[in-house]
Specification:
The complex is a heterodimer of chains A (about 260) and B (about 80).
Chain A: H1 5-36, E1 40-41, H2 44-57, E2 62-66, H3 73-81, H4 84-89, E3 96-97, H5 101-104, H6 108-116, H7 128-143, E4 147-150, H8 170-177, E5 182-190, E6 205-213, H9 221-249
Parallel strand pairs in A: 1-6, 2-4, 2-5, 3-4
Antiparallel strand pairs in A: 5-6
Helix pairs in contact in A: 8-9
Chain B: H1 3-14, H2 41-55, H3 61-65, H4 70-81
Helix pairs in contact in B: 1-2, 1-4
The chains are: A alpha/beta (about 260), B mainly alpha (about 80).
């Protein structure tokens, strides 16, 4: 499905406005993250350098595939992956987000926040026409070289662990439609408290691990979408295992309280 | 294969994924797979893949997106089976 001209223009306008908005409100958001909630990230400079390198090497369409534990994972991930300066210099690195319309689009204020926060609403169980339209929007921004942050499990992990048994195939279907897109898997977890929650506990320190993945499949169509999705979720699961192994062995420890 | 046989097989393939099992008592062509039967949208893909295996057909992404009711599935399979 080709996106109508009016919608293509609307996405370009939204991209420009969200960029200006980020320039204005990004410092406030970062200050809230740092000082109001006292959040921090483990080896944040190395993580940002790695993300910059990924974008330098793959300036085209990028799917940032992450585990999903809290309602604000997208915001935290955005803050951790790049500094304000990184995003101002490379607007395509500031990812689009795909919030569930039912959760965020019933109030004008939330709609506005989502619009300014570079979001494309999606609806679970939407009719075929709506689903195609949402996918055409995603495809359009990806084709222009932007990044989209997506949660391959399709929902938050209630158990606090990556669910590699019952997950969505949406990311695979999107990859089917944008075959040139690269996949960056991101594992994000609060090191103090972690786990499933609406909001991370103030003072938490986030562990972030990045890994590029090139999913393969000899199949076509929906089977390929399923294979791709399974490989991405398996990668996230492996990264989660790395995290818990490192914590258990003491290789990854929290800094001493000051 | 006639429409009744396809319908019977379609219902059998969908049943393991149905959360609202009471809706199975009144299942028909107009029954909506997601809304009425409570099937998870992600599992709808598994169901379509089960159709492919059972009827030896290939369903495109767009055709899969068009399946909303039992009747849609039966009609699509009937067309692909020929």
């Amino acid at each position: 499905m080709k996106l109508p001209r009016r919608m293509r223009l609307a996405l370009r306008v939204q991209r420009g406005i969200s960029y200006l908005c980020f320039a204005l409100f990004g410092p406030i958001l970062t200050a809230i993250y740092r000082f109001r909630f006292r959040f921090s990230a483990h080896q944040v400079d190395a993580v940002r350098a790695q993300y910059r390198a990924v974008r330098a090497e793959h300036p085209g369409p990028l799917l940032i595939c992450s585990n999903h534990l809290t309602l604000v994972d997208s915001i935290i991930q955005t803050i951790v992956l790049g500094s304000l300066w990184d995003y101002l210099r490379h607007p395509a690195s500031l990812p689009w987000n795909l919030p569930e319309a039912k959760n965020f689009y019933h109030r004008f204020s939330w709609r506005l926040v989502c619009y300014l926060g570079r979001c494309i609403p999606v609806e679970r169980g939407a009719c075929a026409e709506q689903a195609r339209l949402a996918q055409a929007r995603m495809r359009y921004v990806l084709d222009r070289g932007d990044a989209i942050a997506i949660f391959p499990e399709g929902r938050r992990s209630r158990s606090g662990r990556v669910d590699d048994r019952d997950f969505s195939y949406g990311v695979g279907q999107l990859l089917n439609r944008v075959p040139g897109a690269k996949v960056l898997c991101v594992y994000l977890r609060g090191m103090h408290f972690g786990g499933f929650a609406d909001f991370p506990t103030p003072g938490d320190r986030f562990y972030v691990q990045l890994k590029m993945l090139v999913p393969h499949s000899a199949s076509t169509g929906l089977r390929r979408a399923r294979d791709y999705s399974a490989q991405i979720v398996a990668q996230l699961k492996a990264m989660e295992d790395d995290y818990f192994t490192a914590r258990a062995s003491g290789a990854l420890s929290l800094p001493a309280a000051s | 294969m006639n429409e009744a046989q396809i319908t019977e097989k379609v219902i059998a393939l969908i049943t393991p994924y149905v959360k609202n099992t009471e809706a199975l008592n009144s299942i028909g062509k107009d029954t909506r797979i997601l809304a009425d039967l409570g099937v998870n949208s992600a599992r709808l893909v598994d169901i379509v893949l089960a159709f492919e295996d059972e009827f030896d057909i290939e369903v495109s992404d767009d055709a899969a997106d068009s399946i909303a009711t039992i009747g849609d599935a039966v009609q699509l399979i009937g067309k692909l089976v020929g």
